[in-house]
Specification:
The protein is α+β, with helices and mostly antiparallel strands. The chain contains 10 helices and 7 strands. A 5-stranded mixed beta sheet has the order 2-4-5-7-6, with helices on one face. Strands 1-3 form a two-stranded antiparallel ribbon.
Length: about 450
Amino acid sequence: MPSGLVWRLVVSFLLAVVCFGGSTVYTESISRDIDAAALSIAGNAVPSIELLTEARSELRHLDAALTRYAAAHKATDRQEILATRARIDGGFEHYLTLPVYPGEDVLKASMHHALRLVDHLVDGVLAGQAVPPSDISATLHGGADELRRAVDLNAEQARRLALRIQRDHDRSSWAAVVLDLLSTLFTALAAWLALRALAHHHRVVEERNELMSRRAEELEQFASRVAHDILGPLSATRLAVEFAAAHTEDPAMRRTLERGKSGILRVASIVDGLLRFARAGARPDPGVVTPVVPVAQSVIAELQPVAEAAGVTLTLQPPATPCSVSAHPGVLASVVENLTRNAIKYMGERPTKTVAIRVVARPDRVRFEVQDSGPGIPPALIRTVFDPHVRGRTQGQPGIGLGLATVKRVVEAHGGSVGVDSKLDDGTTFWCELARADYVEVEPDSRAKRASAQAGK
């Protein structure tokens, strides 16, 4: 993917995230301001207006009661005056506990002075002083005016807060719309860039697949030429060996020539099998069935001189019953030979040198095990031992590290599996499993016996 496209995709994604996050943060901030303004209106302005309005109403009521009491001195009017003054004082004390707006402190001082004058007036009237009704009304009207000024101030503050709430709400709505729109645009841009990136990746994959297809064709042609170049001399060599074997009278020489002929035929089979495998696109030939034991025996016979030269005892443990696998004989021979030759090659200077090949026939699979008494594989190498060009302690042995990688690829292409169990200074066991061609269905009573035996364990 081009670096410029990656950067544009990253930047678009980050801008979309920033716009979305900014919209959320800004909206939350405005919401807090709106909540504070609404709380101020509900918890300060409105209660102040209610208390001050009730106090003004009580002052008007007190004006009428004082006028009646000054004229008739009735006890009921006196009780009414005292109750009214108590209500005015209680409401004003409650008002004084509320928070103040700018400029309200001055009004509170003026109201406090006006209400003190009202208290003096009330005390004088109740004491029997002769106070003209005009003076009573003037004093009470002065206190009411001071309360009205405070009511007007709180009402103005409530109006300003309401306008501020409306302004913040509108601003928040517009900002949220703009930021959400930008977030949507940047998200769409990021999606478009992502689609371009996917299209570019798809184009690169197609080009790579086309290149791999061309290379596979070239490899197939190359493999065909190599196979032809190998099989041609082998045919001539086989004819020469057959001719020599037919005209020799020495039994030992004849056995040697027969062994050479067998090796030539096996090499031809391996080349032919691997060539078929390559031409099939690394897939097994359909319908091919190969008996296991003859192939394993031919591999043992071919590698026996190599094992003897290395001082290795090579043994084969065939399966209890004959079995076959779905693979070409040359492919199967290549797998068994690679595992066995690998065990002989890396035996090292061990006091006891043995390589045992075991074939275990199961109902649906055939397992091949190659166990050696070599030095073992280091734990760090276990995971990569089947990778191409990975080699252990070679001790000067030739090779390029493709034998086990070839085994893994061939076996897995045939639907099988490979693995290794190893312990340092205690030998190594390579194993592989292939699908059994002559599948054996276990009888119901046998399955029941086997299940009961496993349950008993």
